[in-house]
Amino acid sequence: xxxxxxxxxxxxxxxxxxxxxxxxxxxxxxxxxxxxxxxxxxxxxxxxxxxxxxxxxxxxxxxxxxxxxxxxxxxxxxxxxxxxxxxxxxxxxxxxxxxxxxxxxxxxxxxxxxxxxxxxxxxxxxxxxxxxxxxxxxxxxxxxxxxxxxxxxxxxxxxxxxxxxxxxxxxxxxxxxxxxxxxxxxxxxxxxxxxxxxxxxxxxxxxxxxxxxxxxxxxxxxxxxxxxxxxxxxxxxxxxxxxxxxxxxxxxxxxxxxxxxxxxxxxxxxxxxxxxxxxxxxxxxxxxxxxxxxxxxxxxxxxxxxxxxxxxxxxxxxxxxxxxxxxxxxxxxxxxxxxxxxxxxxxxxxxxxxxxxxxxxxxxxxxxxxxxxxxxxxxxxxxxxxxxxxxxxxxxxxxxxxxxxxxxxxxxxxxxxxxxxxxxxxxxxxxxxxxxxxxxxxx
Amino acid sequence: xxxxxxxxxxxxxxxxxxxxxxxxxxxxxxxxxxxxxxxxxxxxxxxxxxxxxxxxxxxxxxxxxxxxxxxxxxxxxxxxxxxxxxxxxxxxxxxxxxxxxxxxxxxxxxxxxxxxxxxxxxxxxxxxxxxxxxxxxxxxxxxxxxxxxxxxxxxxxxxxxxxxxxxxxxxxxxxxxxxxxxxxxxxxxxxxxxxxxxxxxxxxxxxxxxxxxxxxxxxxxxxxxxxxxxxxxxxxxxxxxxxxxxxxxxxxxxxxxxxxxxxxxxxxxxxxxxxxxxxxxxxxxxxxxxxxxxxxxxxxxxxxxxxxxxxxxxxxxxxxxxxxxxxxxxxxxxxxxxxxxxxxxxxxxxxxxxxxxxxxxxxxxxxxxxxxxxxxxxxxxxxxxxxxxxxxxxxxxxxxxxxxxxxxxxxxxxxxxxxxxxxxxxxxxxxxxxxxxxxxxxx
Amino acid sequence: xxxxxxxxxxxxxxxxxxxxxxxxxxxxxxxxxxxxxxxxxxxxxxxxxxxxxxxxxxxxxxxxxxxxxxxxxxxxxxxxxxxxxxxxxxxxxxxxxxxxxxxxxxxxxxxxxxxxxxxxxxxxxxxxxxxxxxxxxxxxxxxxxxxxxxxxxxxxxxxxxxxxxxxxxxxxxxxxxxxxxxxxxxxxxxxxxxxxxxxxxxxxxxxxxxxxxxxxxxxxxxxxxxxxxxxxxxxxxxxxxxxxxxxxxxxxxxxxxxxxxxxxxxxxxxxxxxxxxxxxxxxxxxxxxxxxxxxxxxxxxxxxxxxxxxxxxxxxxxxxxxxxxxxxxxxxxxxxxxxxxxxxxxxxxxxxxxxxxxxxxxxxxxxxxxxxxxxxxxxxxxxxxxxxxxxxxxxxxxxxxxxxxxxxxxxxxxxxxxxxxxxxxxxxxxxxxxxxxxxxxxx
Lengths: 443, 443, 443
Hints:
Three copies of one chain form a homotrimer. Chain A is 28% helix and 19% strand. Chain A has helices at 15-30, 53-65, 87-98, 111-118, 134-148, 166-178, 194-204, 233-239, 313-318, 320-331, 364-367, 430-435; strands spanning 43-48, 69-73, 101-106, 123-128, 155-160, 181-186, 206-212, 226-230, 244-246, 252-256, 290-292, 349-350, 375-380, 385-388, 399-402, 407-409, 424-427, 439-440. In chain A, a hairpin with a 4-residue loop joins β13 (375-380) and β14 (385-388). In chain A, α1 (15-30) packs across α10 and α5 packs across α6 (166-178). The N and C termini of chain A lie far apart (49 Å). In chain A, 54% of the residues are buried. Chains in contact: A-B, A-C, B-C. The A-C interface holds A 40-43, 45, 69-74, 76, 78-80, 83-85, 89-90, 92-94, 96-100, 370-371 and C 32-34, 36, 51-54, 57-58, 60-61, 64-65, 67, 70, 72, 74, 295-298, 303, 314-315, 317-322.
């Protein structure tokens, strides 16, 4: 049996595959009730270890529209897992014969990656803690495609809490990969984290510039705005002699709600939160901008613009159904996703030995260690920087060893370049190196 | 796109439409498993903000019998709305692409009316607090139709708690509208409220008479019975010289459970509650009476009559499926409900300005004011009496203003008759009138 | 209408019927997605009064694979029954028109038997407290059938907590009935209860022998092993001159988890619980043994053998779907289960009068007495021993009366043999006999 295809991260899809999904979604959106034979006889299982009714209903609607059946476990946390069952076991049972595709929501970061390792059927990540929610990102991109016909070169404003919103971080990576320009107008104090900016710079050659956002009107009044743009040749030229980039015409404003539940320990809170209202949308640069929001919204978008034709946030949610139809049908092999190019994919390796180097207590490798083999991806070789392959958190260590030579190095040692990735060992200190009988390199 | 048709109140259906639904339901009941192509490709979403398993399963069974799909959110309260989403937003998302019809259960009175204002697809009210539950009423009427072949002229006994049971109030309005006669044999202290009697008198010309219920045997022993009958010409004649109407032969006894959960503050409680048992059903006048109950029952119907052929309460529940099949298929346009006559429909208007005049703290206009425009229906012009269009509670105010003339009147002023309904303003006192810069009329 | 066929106990199926179900399940397992017309138009209702996600999903998957629809009430306890509805009423409503088959999980022992008495459609017991879970047993037997081609004569090791596991007791009865040999290697202190051994001896002529389990290696090191084997003629001969039976070659090892939730009052607890690991499976006698587990497992099977081809516990769970497809389709009359032989079936009678003689406080006859007629099955006539027909617990009484002669006897009286079963009355003491106006027999 061929290994199933999963969607754990938006990076699992190449740009070409995403485009193909968009084309299928366009067909489905045009006549949503006419595809009820596409997945007849197939079953999707919604395994939700934390409740998220909107996401669950969107997936289940997509599966029903395709003519498939749906198994729902809307609150797994309080059922099987209460009897002490591991996620890996649950996945092997449900994927072993109950369902043809698993839609997984879990509170541990990296849970979907672990599930994919064990599942005989495709796993779709419907949110793993604060980590990823790739179908939300796919849906957001699809909305830009529908509204603007393309993503490359679009001017997209991100507003609100850019610090804690998982949705925004994933969207930033994806926009950067697809070549859109990003204007950040954060709630003061909730700017895009440095590690997000660093990643888009490293992976997609995106440069941050201070943006002149006067033309955005009251949307950006208090913001310390940043402009992120892919530094491809034809675009670099635009920036050579600019210290500030003046925002001219915006294609989309993407607003996010305050992540109040994440704020427990932050003094002061959000203060007066940003709000898109009629006056905001009067700015000249926003004349053609669509307003997007991943929902649920609270007060950050005034209901007075709900009927403005530029307000597409309800359409945006509705389009989650055809794009999820396309994804489900593709992963189950009922429609063709195109030839995989491998672009986007990030290779990962098992940690050769020693302790689990992931520092994230919410990572599935920490919360359910039993069936987990610690895995990592490489960010750079010199100095050696690696991420946990489950939760994407940067690994923290003082030394790196080689499991064959039994030597250990400092992370910036040039000797590390010669070690095969699957022999790498991450050591918190000399004591643990010696406990594993490693000796310093070059002595 | 044509505006969708909703079922928020039983008044939304004309008598002719109800009859047509009965005919469809008869077809469905005769062969429930043979209509699984009727709604193929369509999806119903059960959005239950409070649990009600029986009602939910009845709707979902109906949708599945029609070959449609079902999205279930059995406890919405603890999910999306916990993230602070308004009902109006939830409805716009679910109705915007997830589902083709929404079945809504909510604890706020008027919630379904609000939902209908925002939904792009039909909304069916599956219970909004203590307000309405129109498909229960439709099911009850359908049972009379099946058992007796008609509703007009039937003699229907209502027994038990007639004060707090929402089901009974709706049933009273519907029976009055359809021309049935009603004999009330309440649990002492739990008589039909005066406002219910007043409404049937005003709207349907129904007169209450003291009833002689000796022939009902122990069913009515302690009751302060009342006979409600439509005063149509041919019937009025029956009553001209009667102070007491003697109940002769009953067509149906409709029993209701004690609404214990509503009784918190009522001293004394129900005491010994009424109970239909074998001896009750021995009364001569009940020889052909069917026994109905909206279920769940507790002790108010003895299990010793469960096998009596007159006990139809389990059949009654079962018939909820074909009548809901008829309703779902009609609202989704898959079968024809006949030509709408408008009869039954009650027009409503937005309150022109000022505070929300609804006095009901459980009304959706109070619990979720954000997306609500206060609306009212007119009960009478002289004196001016109006109901909240959401929860149907009578508005309370001291003065009524006109938003164009900026004058205000006492509710019994003849000047009110000249003001267009959409210019009416309801003012609690002179202070608020002046705050809105209104002056007394005729000065 | 013909009375529906139920599955309350595995005893409701004859050996021939089970074999026929296996054949259907083989067909379904070979092409699970090709039977989606088998039950089109039919509906299964999952009524789960306590959560059990795995069991529920397995049934619902089976129904969806057959093309049927599913109504889910995953937590009935907190819904309708909170309004005080009895199980008998719920079943009559759901079975009266909502669904074509009911899958019932309940915490009271005997709940499914009661439900079957009232349901107009087939009831399948998906677990009634600590009593029965017949589809788990059916699934376990089906796995032996698939892996070994037969059940009769197999050598099956039962390991772990054999005292409290409902699953194991049902499996023991079924293995004995099908003629398999059973080797018990219990967790010390958690041996198979004497009443289980007694029942298989009485009903299936099974003899317990002390087993020599040295060849089982560390699996049985500390166990006080017992060998149970059907004493059919050709096998009896094997045992005539053996006091210890040496286990040679095992076909299956069935491991069970510690039933920690049952242990509250047992001092000491389980101590170090048994664990199947790589070393255990190295024993020569286990070379061809499959490893089974009803799941969820915790530590009693090491993950190091998950990829051993003999570890079939995930396959075992997956095979629950085709066998449940066979069962559902049979009970709904869509496929043929063969001619019933009556073998396996145990007749039951109503208790003629007096108090409910069942001593089990968790029995449905105690927890929901309202709609229950006490019923019993006869275990022996001399002395008279009887079981509650709901929970199978042995009745406890001092005297047995006859409701026609109004005499009472001691349970070992020979006079009891002449009393018709439906005239039997079970009396706790002389006082209650006299209260019912019974006099001692033979005076």
